[in-house]
Structures are given as C-alpha cells and as structure tokens.
Request: fold
Amino acid sequence: MNAISKEIDRSPIAPGPDATRLKALNDWVAEVAVLTGPDRIQWCDGSDAENKSLIDGMLADGTLLKLNEQTHPNSFLHRSDPDDVARVEHLTFVCTAQEDDAGPNNHWLAPAEAHARMDALFKGCMAGRTMYVIPYCMGPIDSPLSRCGVEITDSPYVVANMRLMTRMGAPALARIEREGTFVKGLHSTGELDPERRFIMHFPEELTIKSFGSGYGGNALLGKKCHALRIASHQARGEGWLAEHMLILGVENPQGETHYIAAAFPSACGKTNLAMLIPPQGYRDAGWKVWTVGDDICWMRPGEDGRLYAINPEAGFFGVAPGTSSKSNPNALACLQRDAIFTNVGVTADNQPWWEGLDNGQQPATDWRGEPYDPAKRPAAHPNSRFTVSAKACPSYSPEAENPAGVPISAIVFGGRRASLVPLVFEARDWTHGVLVGASMGSETTAAAAGAVGVMRRDPMAMKPFCGYNFADYFAHWLSFDTPGANLPKVFHVNWFRKGDDGKFLWPGFGDNIRVIEWMIGRVTGSARAVETPIGALPGEDDLDLDGLELTGEARAKLFGYERDGWHAELQAIGDYLRDYGPRMPRGLLDEQERIVRSLG
Ligand code: GTP
Ligand code: SPV
Ligand code: MN
Reply:
C-alpha cells in the first residue's frame, strides 16, 4: 500500500470522491464491487511507487521470485499454474445478439446467457482479495487512433504486466474522463480451475469478462481481448483495421524508411522480424530495421489515401524459447533489466534460462520449480514469455510514439508451411492480396492450448482474434479499395519451408532482410519478378543471396511454384470460403475462381 494509490478501504459500494469524476466509470466499479465482494479497491495510477508496492507484495506471497540482481536488475520470475500456460481458444467466446454476426470462426453464446454464466462465476470471487482498477490507453496517449479501456482485476501480476504493455494510469484516466467512453474489462483469476474458465467478449457492449486464467492473452485484457477482438468489431464500424501484425521500419542505404506491417500467427515470427538485425554486409551498406510494434497494428486511411498504423501496445509479451544473441539480439538486450519472465527455467544463480539461449549457462530449475531433468520436461515452457517495456528495445522506433502513425508501404502475410508455399510472392492487386490473407494456413503452435503442428486455416493470422464473422471481415478488407486509395502492396512469405530431410531450407531471422529488400524494391519499382498464377515470384537472381549456401533443392523449393499442388490448394481454399455461406463476398470467390482457372 502506498500514499499515491487512490484506495478506498472497506467501502466498495461507494467509490468516494477521489476515484474519478466520470459517473459511468464510478457506477461500473461500484457494480463490480457489489458482485465480486473484494476487501479493498485500489485505483491504479501507474506510478513507480505503486508498482514497487505491488512487486513487494508479490515477492512476499511467492507470486514473483526475484532474479539475480547483479545480472538482471529489477527482474522477476512468475510461475503460472501448470494448467494455465497459454490462450484457451475453446473457452473463448464472442457474444453478439445474432449468432451469425460472430460467425463460424468464433464460439458464440447469447449475451444474456453469457452474462449470467460469467456473473455466477464472479459472484463473491474477490472476497479476501484486492480489486485493482486499471485505466489504460491502447496507443500513444495523444493519438486520435488510440482507444482506452479500464480493466478490473484481482491479480497484481496482471497490473504489473499491464503497466509494461499499455499506457496505464493517470494519463489514461484523464483521457477516459475527457472522452467518456471506454472498453470495460472484468477479470478474475478465480480458482484457476480449467473447468471454470471462460474468456467472453461482448463487442456490441464494448465489454469483456474473463474468469479463471491468469495467463497472457486470457488475462491482460488490453491485448488480444480489447486490441483485437473488441477493436476489430469497432474498426469495422468506424472504417479502420485492428490486426495481429507487427510493424517495422526499414531504412535503406539512401536513408529512406519504408514501413511494413506483417501478420503471422502466434509464435510464427512477428517479434523476431520486428527486431531484425541485418547481416553484416547489409549493415555496412546502411540497412537498418526499426521496431514499431511486434504483435498488434491498428491502421486507418489518411488524407493521402495511404494506410497509417499505430502500435496500440507499449511493451512486448514475447516468446522466450529460441530467443538468442544469434536469432534476436535486440530482444535479449531488452531483457537485461526491468523484465518479468513467465514460466522460464532458472540457473543455479537465479538467472532466467530457456531452450535456445546461447549464453553458456545451464538450467538448474525448470518452469514448474522442480530440478531440471531433460527427460521430464524442458526447462522453459514452450510458450514461456517475457514482458518488457518497448522503450528498452535498442531498435525501438521514435515514430512508434507519433500520434499520426506511420504510413504502410507493404502488408505481409505468412505462416508455418513445411511444403508447397515458396519463400515469397507478391499479390497482383488488393483483391488478390485480401484472398492471399484470407487463405493463409499455418501449423498450430504452443501459444494456444491444444495440439501443436496441425495445419489449419488462419486468415490474416486472426482466427483466434477476429471479433466478428470472417465473411464480413473479408468484405471489410475489400472495402478499402476505393477511388483515391493508395494501398500498400501485399506479399506472402514462408520462413518455414522444409526440405526432404525435415530441416528448414531458409536461414531466416536476420537473413529475412533479403526478402524485405526485394519487397521494398517491388514497392519502389526497382526489383524484378516472374509472373505466375499465384502471384509474382522473385527469380533466384532477383534476391541478394550473397554469402548464403542454398542447395539445389532449397533453391527449387524456395523460388519455384508447383502447379498441381497449388491447384489443389486453391480448390481447398474455395471450399473453405464457401463454408461461410452467403455472407462471403462475391468478389473474393470470383478471385479464387479466376486463379483456379488460370492454374487449370
Ligand atoms: P506471438 O507473440 O505468439 O504472437 O508470436 P510471434 O509471431 O511474435 O512469434 P516469435 O517472433 O516470438 O517467434 C516464435 C518462434 O518462431 C520462435 O521459436 C522463433 O525462434 C521462431 N522464428 C522466428 N522467426 C523465424 C525465422 O525466420 N525462421 C525460423 N526457422 N524460425 C523463426
Ligand atoms: C499470441 O498468442 O498471439 C500472443 C500471446 O501474442 S497472448 O498475449 O497470450 O495472446
Ligand atoms: Mn500474438
């Protein structure tokens, strides 16, 4: 407890004069307090003193463990419940009045039934606990593209993470009071019982109710629940896009910076691409990558017809395993201090450790707190994560704070495709680009509970995150192609093509700049390509492959296209789109049929 926090002891029903002057917010907080019955209410102001007192409390009760202060100052480890380690898509619902508005891509419940079910879970759930009220802003505090929300939670771990991931506290509350509207997110860890766990969204009421999980996207409601599921619904009504995309700036040797937004499914390379460090030869020539965002992108057309994008987040909640000084030195640099690690292993001297970390250390304790035994389980959970402020990233772009956003030159779609899909191709035009996004497929990863490595359709990497019917979502995407629009070029990439030996054919990571260089060349008109029915592919000579040793098999598979395989793929895509029924836009089906014919 500290003097700065505005807290109201033992009077949950009357918030008191110093809470907020916004009646709608006071009323909602009071209503939630009656329902959940906390011992105390704490309005979070985002201050250092408040954070320190929360951290001290979590250290005292074991929610957080202190990491080595010499090597990792002010950094902490959280071990979540072993049954609560990833998003739970089967327990995530979009509750619109009409079932068809949620679409076949979402689980649906009628709003009244969903509220009743959730309120029964929330009843009295905060007895003996503190209820934290977190005002937050998604996006730069002074940007017209930003949107605010308030999360009520009984988890101090959530508060500490929201402080790193969003603009949280007093400035956000001031904006909420000015605007009068905000997304309402109610969260309780409950008993962490997987049988009593639901993540419910009410897009028509700008409301989220999440119960029974303390993990990531289930609990940090600003992230996937607000900035994607609720925001995508809002964006459709207001003429913008809320996407599961990184945003990066690429500075070329001429000193021009082009911004790229890229949608890859969870744990498929967004953080890594957003923080890319080019190989030495490229650096010497003057190439540099700037990080704007690594997970979420909000964009809307500007007056010049281009799409302008902001990163609504203020931090990174990144995948730990595989992060090394070789694969992602920028991420490692962020993690030297002031970071929260969730479900990683630790060394004997209390340094965080995960599979793929190449620092010469060995794990002593695994993510469950047991002595490390590789025969039993990995040291770090495959979905273990770090939370850190974006400002800690050496490549963080000053433009990430620009309230006007950054102009997007290229949109990139991509997934994990072991076969068929080449390294990169360019869509013919916007409609074709929307089809390329809509027909994305990828192998599932540990970011969500369930089987890993199963190929599924994941349109625009939004399968788990679109807050409305995908058919309407594709129509919304198509609608940006208006007279006067100056839309980005659309590309598809695949860093994950495998050879007959089951190994990746493309080196990936820093070498992905080679593909980016080609894409920028296509945008500016300097790079060549070969037209095929699936789009424009670079010939081997159109990409700078200097210094890479690619086998004949790699070259054939990365830069070739297989007509028969694509014919079958396009037919499967047609079946997938038609499954959505009459709401699927005709323009997208026409495009799919056109490509099938040209492959014929
Ligand atoms: P979310 O935060 O879940 O949305 O994921 P993300 O898309 O940001 O994924 P991230 O960049 O954290 O990558 C996840 C995994 O993909 C890690 O194990 C990386 O090592 C691996 N990865 C990223 N980029 C590449 C690449 O270019 N090639 C290969 N082979 N693996 C990659
Ligand atoms: C993802 O799963 O896409 C993530 C992590 O970025 S979470 O915040 O849990 O959604
Ligand atoms: Mn994500």
Q: What stands out?
A: The chain has a mean pLDDT of 96. The chain is about 30% helix and 20% strand. Residues 244, 266, 295 surround manganese (II) ion (ligand 3) (CB under 6 Å).
